[in-house]
């Protein structure tokens, strides 16, 4: 039992050392601390966990590291903040230094107490009192009173409560005895989109998270949902694969069902949409709201059981014509490759394996015995390895990770024109996005346009939203079993990518199992797999809406709208005859080319009638009543076909044969 405990402790220590020894590279000048945490997560896979006010994610920091251990970077980054860290599992936990440590630094401690009220003199129940840089803290009772012992005399005390402005005092400040918190008017007056309307945050009691335009646009992402990662509590954003299209999965407060789908309901400008999110232009988005609990999403019925994500696009605001261009170009590469054996190390490793098989079956034999003395083929050493074992220089030594990975470029160009006249506002935009994948022969391109018009004449309002988009994606099977990456990691480095005549080399595909069966696994050339197979997906999406609204009298409005979305997807795949099938039986012989083509077309229309009554009673109470009638229908048509026996590889699509 003691041995088992010791082994667990040893493994835990090794895991901690491995995590802190991970190396990171970054060069940030005067950026928010949260951005540095995001970079650490992207490079190491470790999530940085912290709480306010112990850590202020908006604090501006400057940090530079070039392949430096994570522990050293964290030590410099957190210096002077009164914060320490602990790495456990997949997370880096940031926490205030122990009170004893703060006490040692200040020398003397004291007791503080007082009462916290709002501007009307009412006690603030549950207000947070925290000593900056320590784990000391408490909250107010039902009378707004608090008491805190052991506070260092030179410490800073932070008073905070949701909806109120945070205040900071020195521990010796007499004002701590009576504190008045002021409402954060900017926060409370901020408008969020809810089901079939908008409300002030101060009026919302349900669980709603919001992300604004600037937080989305500043993130380089092919899918706007990637920009939501880490910005909303209770919203889990994952990217199942690393393809340039950036497929995204979102779960709101976990998985709510086993058999049915777990995807949330998406609403774009009032139109329910189920697909084509990668085609949406990130620069067109004004805000994203997530309705997370049952009460906030109830108006959408069972469709909102997994949460509701409401996307609102931009409208014309300024009275002057505003022309705006946004663009960027960046590069990306694999931050860390796996450490693999080179060709000479592989030869030694393979020799040890064959020697062990020989010695196990022939007691008394010697590892120096030549192949001629070894009765079974799997006990013999492949002849191609002898030059490596002899230490000959200038032999083939292929880094298969370098062969499939590349430095990939990403660029985006967006232009928009917006404005507002006396009766009509407009927002028109166009976007081009091009992202290469870090795996060769993979990329994603999209083209999108948008026109949003809205107007008002006396008590009559109207509007039109129209957004067509097109994208094309060249996909490579990089993450699947038997895919390009797995093959690159399994392929012996003694084989070259190309033969002397420029053709692909397929000796890894069972050459060592022909004649003398050395029993090495057959593996296809991963570079050939990426280049001799095509998988192209073209997508076309159109989302539009027309609405009209009339106000009968103050507070009572009637709105009718008609919207819909069209989504079409076409996929063509082709496997060239130049790429053999897997296994020694096929080795380097040509295969029968295979093509597959599929198409799917969705059309969804929605018509809604809405009556809304909104009034304020005695300036203290607001009443908002909504009556909605909605009708929706979706139509789907699809087909698929597979073909073989192509006469050559010049015609690769079924429609052209």
Molecular structure report:
With 657 residues, the protein is of the alpha+beta class. It is 16% helix and 41% strand. It contains twelve helices and 30 strands. A nine-stranded antiparallel β-sheet has the order 22-23-24-25-26-27-28-29-30. Strands 15-20-21-18-19 form a five-stranded mixed β-sheet. The longest helix has 19 residues, at 2-20. It is flat and about 100 Å long. The termini are far apart. Mean pLDDT is 83; it is low at 1-20, 99-106 and 201-205.
Give me the number of helical elements.
Answer: 12
Strand content: 35-45%
Q: Give the radius of gyration.
A: 32 Å
Helix content bin: 10-25%
Please tell me the overall pLDDT: 83
Shape: flat
Structural class: alpha+beta
Q: How is the main sheet built? A: 9 strands, antiparallel
Order of strands side by side in the largest beta sheet? 22-23-24-25-26-27-28-29-30
